[in-house]
Structure formats: structure tokens, C-alpha cells
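can u do me a favor
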């Protein structure tokens, strides 16, 4: 290359001048980055921070179980997925602790109770205490039904055994007593081969028959329930109560004219905004506090579950399935207008 063909700076130095055609202004790069972060398919930065609390909690609890001498030294039963009660390193490490029995075991009852109290008492959703089915209440109830359907399918029933039990059997799990005794059932005298027994029994039925699951990969139902229930309450309550852009205006949605802020979403023909000046009386405060208490206790029990129960993989799969359910209800509808028309969005 000749010297004449080389670009020079104005001050006459021999350093090549920057190629303006290949470089983009810093402001333009930031705008493009913001457009990526504000995709309708993705959570806002604040939502992502809230959701990150859950894997952080599982990591913290799991590290505690490795670093705490009593927890590390206590025997652990892989079949029961817990420490023996007599040798448990903590009260919360016992499966029969009062919080596990009366809160976690019936966790979806408490989640539903807290949600219904909030829906019935907050003036943003409808007249407090009045049994009036406003559009916002209707869409909130639809979201609850979809999340409840996820809970039922994963932990209770999915055209037979729930998904947790189906996954356990698919990965090689069996009911130990049935495999050892070739499937003798109660006093009926009927015999079943172990392969047939695997298709008949769920985890609950196996325990009822005096057996236990063995082998296979088990999704942590506790992690799934606690993450799904508490995040469901956070996602419903916080966008309504908090005047924070990361939970409201910064949420992006897809429309016929492209992506835009959820603050411009319309319902019943008009632009909907939060009732900023609505007074919060005693009933409204109770309706907010109950979901926050249930979500907070769920987080604590999630930490205890991470510290004393289940393996790393079981906890991770429980978290992953819960996040899949949350994404289908709170993030996917932002990008699919037809779906959003049915389930709506909290705070809109």
C-alpha cells in the first residue's frame, strides 16, 4: 500500500484514523442492547433479579449442607430423600416438622388462599369485599387456573400418574416391594409382574402398599411447589402494589404495530393504568400482607429444603419445571397477543 492511500489524522500523525463506517456510536450500541433486553420474550432486569433469588437460594442451601459440620456428618437416606429423624442435624431437617406438615404439604391451599384474599380485597382489581367479577379479577383467576393446572399435572394427576411419577418410572424407578415380591397386592392374592406394577403404582400408592421408590430420577416436588407458589404470588402482587418501572412500564409486549410498553396495553377499549390515588385501608393492607407472608415463608422452607433434602439434580429439575410454568403464564403471553387476551397481565 502506498503512503498516499493510508488515512491520516488531521494533526499529521501517522496513526490510522478510525473507520467510522465500521464503528457504531456508543449511544446506538446501548439502544440496541436495551432493545435486546426489552424483548417481549424476556423478563425485565428487575424481574430477572427477583427470579434469580430462587437458584441463589438453592445454591446457598446446598452449600450450607456441604460446609456445615453437623449437616455434613448426618446420615442421609437416598430412598426417603431426607435425614433420619433421630439423627437429623436440625429441626427443619426432620420431615415431620410442623412447617413441613402444615404448610408445605398443603402449600397450594395456602397459595390459593393468599391469592384469593388479595384479589377480593385490593381496589385495583375490583371493589374490595364485593363479589363482582371485574375484567381484571377474571384474568387474574384465569392465570391462577393455568398455574394450578401446572401444579396438578406435575404433582397430582396427568392422565394417570403425575408427571413427577411418570418421569421417575421412565428413568428406571420402581416400587421396591413390588419388584422384590413380584407384585403381590394386599390380600387380593393377585400377582403382577414388576413391569406391570411399574405402570400401575404412583409414589403415593407405593407408600400406601408399604413400599418405596427406588432407582430413577425424581423431580423435587417441594422445590417445584415452593418456587411456583411464591413466585406466582410475587408476580401477581408486586406489579399492582409497587410503582416500579421494572415491574410495569418496562415490560414489553407484541402488538399489531410492533413491540411496545405494557403500560399502553388496553382492556375493554381504553388505556388502563394503575389507580395511583387509591386509598389502602385495613382490608387492603391485610390483602397485601397475607400473600407476602405466605411467599416469605415459602422462601424460608425452600432454603431449608435446599439445605436438608434432595440431591442437587432433583432440586435443579424442580426449579426448571417451576420456571417453565411461570414462563408460560407471565412471559410468553407478552409475545402472543391471542394468549395475552385470555390470561392478561398483572398490573395492566
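np, heres the sequence
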Amino acid at each position: 500500500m502506498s503512503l498516499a492511500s493510508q488515512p491520516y489524522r488531521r494533526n499529521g500523525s501517522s496513526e490510522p484514523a478510525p473507520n467510522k463506517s465500521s464503528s457504531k456510536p456508543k449511544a446506538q450500541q446501548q439502544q440496541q442492547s436495551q432493545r435486546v433486553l426489552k424483548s417481549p420474550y424476556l423478563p425485565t432486569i428487575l424481574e430477572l433479579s427477583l427470579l434469580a433469588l430462587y437458584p441463589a437460594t438453592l445454591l446457598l442451601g446446598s452449600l450450607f449442607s456441604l460446609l456445615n459440620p453437623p449437616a455434613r456428618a448426618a446420615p442421609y437416606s437416598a430412598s426417603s430423600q431426607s435425614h433420619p429423624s433421630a439423627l437429623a442435624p436440625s429441626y427443619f431437617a426432620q420431615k415431620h416438622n410442623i412447617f413441613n406438615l402444615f404448610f408445605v404439604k398443603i402449600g397450594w391451599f395456602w397459595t390459593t388462599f393468599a391469592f384469593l384474599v388479595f384479589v377480593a380485597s385490593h381496589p385495583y382489581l375490583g371493589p374490595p369485599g364485593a363479589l363482582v367479577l371485574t375484567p381484571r379479577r377474571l384474568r387474574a383467576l384465569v392465570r391462577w387456573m393455568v398455574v394450578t393446572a401446572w401444579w396438578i399435572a406435575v404433582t397430582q394427576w396427568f392422565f394417570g400418574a403425575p408427571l413427577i411419577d411418570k418421569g421417575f418410572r421412565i428413568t428406571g424407578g420402581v416400587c421396591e416391594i413390588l419388584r422384590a415380591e413380584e407384585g403381590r397386592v394386599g390380600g387380593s392374592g393377585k400377582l403382577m409382574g414388576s413391569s406391570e406394577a411399574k405402570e400401575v403404582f404412583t409414589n403415593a400408592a407405593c407408600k400406601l402398599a408399604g413400599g418405596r421408590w427406588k432407582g430413577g430420577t425424581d423431580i423435587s416436588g417441594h422445590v417445584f411447589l415452593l418456587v411456583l407458589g411464591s413466585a406466582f404470588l410475587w408476580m401477581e402482587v408486586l406489579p399492582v402494589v409497587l410503582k416500579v418501572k421494572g415491574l410495569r412500564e418496562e415490560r414489553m409486549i407484541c402488538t399489531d404495530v410492533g413491540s411496545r410498553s405494557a403500560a399502553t396495553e388496553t382492556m375493554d377499549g381504553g388505556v388502563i393504568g394503575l389507580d395511583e390515588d387509591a386509598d389502602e385501608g385495613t382490608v387492603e393492607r391485610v390483602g397485601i400482607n397475607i400473600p407476602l407472608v405466605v411467599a416469605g415463608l415459602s422462601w424460608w422452607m425452600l432454603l431449608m429444603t435446599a439445605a436438608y433434602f434432595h440431591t442437587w439434580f432433583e432440586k435443579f429439575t424442580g426449579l426448571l419445571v417451576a420456571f417453565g410454568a411461570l414462563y408460560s403464564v407471565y412471559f410468553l403471553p407478552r409475545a402472543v397477543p391471542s394468549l395475552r387476551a385470555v390470561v392478561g397481565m398483572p398490573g395492566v
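Residues 1-18, 29-37, 178-200, 266-278 have pLDDT under 50 and may be disordered. hope that helps!!
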